Amino acid sequence: MAWYDVFSAFYDASLERHYREQRVQATAALDLQPGSVVLDLPCGTGQSLPGLCAGVGPSGRVLGVDLSAGMLRQAQRRVERGGLTGVTLARADAATLDLSALGGAPPDRLHIFLGMSVFPNPAATFEHLWSLLAPGGRCVIVDCHAETLSFQGRMVNLLAGADIRRRSWAPLEAVGVAFERRALPSLPLHGGQLFLATALKP
Ligand SMILES: C[S@@+](CC[C@H](N)C(=O)[O-])C[C@H]1O[C@@H](n2cnc3c(N)ncnc32)[C@H](O)[C@@H]1O
After folding, report:
1. How many whole angstroms separate alpha carbon 54 and alpha carbon 56?
2. First-residue to last-residue Cα distance in the chain
3. Interval between CA 112 and ligand 1 midpoint (Å)
4. How far is the CA of 135 from the CAs of 3, 74, 115, 149, 153, in angstroms?
5. Residue 34 belongs to a domain with what CATH number?
6. Which residues form the domain of 83?
7. What is the pLDDT along the chain (202 residues), one digit of tens a residue?
8. Do the strands 193-200 and 177-183 form a parallel or antiparallel pair, or are they unpaired?
9. In angstroms, rounded to a whole number, what is the distance separating the alpha carbons of residues 202 and 161?
């Protein structure tokens, strides 16, 4: 994940403000309860961590996992700066993540924000992450989709190492119950339509 190690140096400065509102909506859609355990993957530089920590409260836990050591370093700084508690950060590949190494209760919330368009094998990776979610747990996916790529869409794919032509909600729609998908506010700079998809694990 060498590119994201480099990108981590300017990721927040270039992108944080453009996803703020969508991040708030994703956290709200998780329906966090005091004591919830959230798997935030990929956690990137930890932009979602403050909202997730507030949602789970002091008795909850947030597991932030990412493949890039550089992104995780930024996330660790954010945790320290914000005095966030109940956060465990770990470096792992989403496709093979072994949660037993992190200890604690299995996650009852799965938050995949701008990950499904980036994972090299999204279907298999989602299947693995879904297997880690406790029965009855909720998954929220936020990502970008463009059926055909504009110039900006190509730029987003290039910069993020993404493929926004993927229908990134489809793996969740196939296995979740009470599936819902809605459009999120999107700007031309996002390269396509941002969406939020959510469902429960039976
Ligand atoms: C566009 S960023 C999104 C980060 C964060 N969720 C956010 O909203 O800012 C994509 C992230 O996916 C991570 N990533 C890519 N492939 C991964 C994998 N196989 N396992 C874990 N993380 C991965 C990258 O390191 C990067 O931090």
Report:
1. 6
2. 33
3. 9
4. 35, 32, 22, 37, 36
5. 3.40.50.150
6. 2-200
7. 599 999 999 999 999 999 999 999 999 999 999 999 999 999 999 999 999 999 999 999 999 999 999 999 999 999 999 999 999 999 999 999 999 878 778 999 999 999 999 999 999 999 999 999 999 999 999 999 999 999 999 999 999 999 999 999 999 999 999 999 999 999 999 999 999 999 999 9
8. antiparallel
9. 32
**Cβ proximity of 43 and 68 under 8 Å:** no
Residue 118 Cα, ligand 1 centroid: separation in angstroms?
A: 7
Q: Which ligand 1 atom is at minimum distance from the Cα of 19?
A: 8
- State which ligand 1 atom lies nearest to the alpha carbon of 47: 9
The answer, yes or no, to whether the previous bond of 202 is cis (omega within 30 of 0) is no
- How long a stretch of residues is the chain? 202
pTM: predicted TM-score of the whole model, two decimal places: 0.98
Report the amino acid identity of residue 24.
V
75 HSE (CA, 13 A, CB side): 29
CA distances (Å), origin 131, targets 9, 71, 113: 33, 25, 18
Query: How many domains does the chain divide into?
Result: 1
Classify burial at 186, counting beta carbons within 10 Å of its beta carbon; exposed 0-12, middle 13-18, buried 19 or more.
middle
Which of the listed residues 114, 118, 140 should we mutate to test ligand 1's pocket, taking the one with most ligand atoms within 8 A of CB? 118
